[in-house]
Amino acid sequence: MAARWSSSVWNTFVEGDNLDVLATLPPGSVDLVVTDPPYNTGNGFAYADTFGSHAAWVAMMRPRLEACREVLADTGAIFVSIDDHEVAHLRLLMDEVFGEANFLAQVIVNLNPKGRQLGRGFATSHEYLLGYARDAGRCVLDASSPDHVDEGDFPLSHADGRRFRHLPLRNTNKKFNPATARTLHFPLYGDPASGRVAAAPFPGSREIWPVFGDGAPAVWRWSAPLVEARADDLVCRTIRGRLGERDDVFQRDWLHRDTPGGRRKKLRTIWLSEEVGSTDTAVAELKALVGKVFESPKPTGLVRRVLATMPSDVVVVDPFAGSGTTGHAVALANAEDGGTRRCLSVNSAEPTRPGSHAHVAGLATVADITRARLRAVAEAVGGGYKEIPAGLPARVTPRRPSPAR
Questions:
Q1: Residue 20 zone, left/alpha/beta (φ > 0; ψ -120 to 50; rest)
Q2: I want to staple 321 with a disulfide (CB 3.0 to 4.6 A). Which of 150, 177, 188, 347 is the partner?
Q3: What DSSP string runs through 327-368?
Q4: Helix (H/G/I), strand (E/B), else coil: 135
Q5: Cβ neighbours around 336 below 10 Å, total
Q6: What is the pLDDT of residue 2?
Q7: What is the distance between the alpha carbons of residues 314 and 274, in angstroms, rounded to a whole number?
Q8: Contact at 8 Å (CB) between 24 and 391?
Q9: Using CA atoms, how far apart are residues 345 and 367, in angstroms rounded to an integer?
Q10: How far is CA 71 from the centre of its chain?
Q11: 92 touches 100 (CB < 8 A)
């Protein structure tokens, strides 16, 4: 009989081969995969991280990525951490498995701002995070955040105290022009003295056509009905351009917009340690819960940034759970925003290396590291903990019915 993955417990753990465990999950039942596979560095920390050739590592990863793709919902996404040893091979492999059109980002993560001082060559201070959608056209990921909105970018103040900036209503991208966006090439009417803008003439108004700085015809970003509906967010100004003075129309872009969750800004593809944490802060996080038992965990802030791009009720899977960072991050995110995310963490019973911190602490397998942390997370943060015995299939209850494929 299959054990059902609880719909209320935040963290569930399965000990076993991730390929076997993924095969027990229904297709399309997972919203997000976040994982940190072996890097094939040849180093031996808590476990042996070596597969020899690149081909051997790719042969190990391919069926697991294919299994992840199978369990992902069409609206879902996958994020995989990696470093320079295998990033080139992983990028090509994920292009093959998920499709080049579903590539989301290759993020540079500044996990070691001081740089690694051991070994020859440069002091490496970064790793990578590769993101792919299951279906880019249907993916619900929102690659933006309210945390990076700079109030200094909004220097103007309205009479009511609201901050804003002026953005040209003209589309500044020359790919959009009267030939490619014919319906957006029309005159507006404005009065630079009062600032008023309308889609139809009014007393004292002047006809204004959208043009580029060189005088070439352009198009507006808004349709005429939208101009009428949001005329108070527009202003007519006289500006000095390359060809002399001309009247133009600008949008008042408000700092605080009436949108769910407030104003957001697109995430950049370089994530600094002061934003998401570092290897040092990750070691400290783990040490506070179960001791120093893993040499290179990921910081929870890194995973929480990924979680913040998805809805707050996602089903998350980490097939290479390592020290349990993903499950820890899920619990912290739920505790902060009241979300109902659920995480399934999978780790094998591979023995820990004799002499490693984990082995000295009495954790005989890497699975023991994961379960120790997730149990401690349940006690410290909440959300509960459930373990599905090795060899017993895990049947996830999706957050929504799986779409037909």
A1: alpha
A2: 347
A3: HHHHHHHHHHH----EEEEEE--PBPPTTSHHHHTT--BHHH
A4: coil
A5: 11
A6: 46
A7: 26
A8: no
A9: 10
A10: 19
A11: no
* Spatial distance between the Cα atoms of 120 and 76, rounded to a whole number of angstroms: 40
Helix (H, G, I), strand (E, B) or coil at 140: coil
Tell me, yes or no, if the pTM score tops 0.90. no
Taking CA atoms, 179 is separated from 183, 184, 226, 249, in Å, by 9, 10, 21, 21
Phi, psi for 336 (deg, rounded to 5): -80, -45
Edge-first strand order for the sheet with 197-198 is 197-198, 188-190, 206-208
Q: What backbone torsions phi and psi does residue 330 show, to the nearest 5 degrees?
A: -60, -45
> Which whole-number Å values give the CA distances from 320 to 8, 22, 151, 323, in the listed order?
23, 11, 40, 9
Tell me which amino acid residue 307 is: L
Which H or E run includes 311? none
Residue pair 178/217 in contact (Cβ under 8 Å)? The answer is yes
Cβ 142 vs Cβ 304: under 8 Å: no
Distance CA 399, CA 396 (A): 9
Q: Whose CA is closest to 49, among 353, 327, 318?
A: 353
Q: 10 Å Cβ neighbour count for 281?
A: 17
Among 103, 106, 96, CA closest to 127: 106
- Identify the DSSP state of 268: P
**Widest distance between CA atoms in the chain:** 86
Query: What is the chain's pLDDT, residue by residue, as a tens digit (405 residues)?
Result: 345 566 789 999 999 999 999 999 999 999 999 999 999 876 644 445 567 789 999 999 999 999 999 999 999 999 999 999 899 999 999 999 999 999 999 999 999 988 887 777 899 999 999 999 999 999 999 998 766 666 777 888 888 888 888 999 999 998 899 999 999 999 999 999 999 999 999 999 999 999 998 889 999 999 999 999 999 999 999 988 788 899 999 999 888 755 544 567 789 999 999 999 999 999 999 999 988 777 778 999 999 999 999 999 999 999 999 999 999 999 999 999 999 999 999 999 888 878 777 777 778 888 999 999 999 999 999 999 999 976 666 666 666 544 444
The CA-to-CA distance between both ends of the chain, in Å, stands at 27
Count CB neighbours of 323 within 10 A. 30
> Which DSSP symbol is given to 69?
H
